[in-house]
Specification:
Layout (H helix, E strand, L loop, with lengths): L1 H12 L5 H21 L42 E4 L5 E2 L7 E3 L2 E9 L1 E12 L4 E12 L4 E5 L5 E2 L2 E17 L2 E9 L3 E6 L1
Antiparallel strand pairs: 1-4, 2-3, 3-8, 4-7, 5-6, 5-9, 9-10, 9-11
Helix pairs in contact: 1-2
Length: about 200
């Protein structure tokens, strides 16, 4: 990594970089130094974050993959509840004059459950699309009692500029059925580039 940093310093001390060759050399030095930095244990990861369990689901035995709910690995809730997105990717919210980005996740079950609780976290890509970061707060919401369908509509992160930004969301949650909680560790939306930066 030291050689890449020295190369960046040399480029930075030099005159204005012009021409295709100079721009390519600078880009290669930045990417190489970035990759070296990300490889150091404890530094930022280049990979998008995996779906994470919300603290409220910590009592579950294990994270359940995909979009189904379960109480333990391989066990799905009897009501067969699933998380979906409509639309499938983040969008500019009309309710905020198209000046905020959000998603509308929903849970659909084969039969009514006592309660549905969802948590949504918005993410964006930055630094040439190599890194991701959480944006805004965690958005919690819950259904009324005894429902088979619930859509969350309170997710909105305000745009502070019109920069082209790639967004996605991760929704986790839990459903209560016959006095027992079933958990979902997180289901990711599709990516979408929007003229909404923060």
């Amino acid at each position: 990594m030291g050689s890449q940093i020295r190369q960046l310093r040399r480029l930075g001390r030099g005159k204005l970089i012009t021409g295709r060759r100079g721009r390519l050399a600078l880009a290669a030095a930045v990417v190489t130094a970035t990759a070296a930095f990300m490889a150091i244990p404890g530094t930022a990861s280049a990979a998008p974050p995996a779906a994470q369990s919300h603290p409220a689901t910590a009592g579950s035995q294990s994270a359940i993959s995909s979009l189904a709910f379960g109480a333990s690995p391989g066990e799905q809730d009897p009501a067969k509840c699933y998380i979906h997105y409509e639309p499938k990717e983040p969008h500019l919210r009309a309710s905020h004059n198209h000046n905020a980005v959000g998603v509308k996740p929903y849970v659909k079950c084969a039969r009514s459950v006592q309660l549905i609780v969802l948590y949504v976290q918005m993410y964006k890509y930055h630094f040439f699309g190599l890194l991701t970061e959480k944006v805004g707060r965690l958005f919690p919401d819950q259904s009324k009692h005894n429902v088979a369908y619930f859509q969350q509509k309170n997710v909105a992160v305000a745009c502070t500029n019109k920069d082209s930004t790639k967004w996605f969301a991760i929704t986790s949650g839990k459903v209560l059925e016959n006095g027992k909680w079933y958990y979902n560790s997180g289901y990711r939306s599709e990516n979408r580039v929007l003229a909404c930066g923060t």
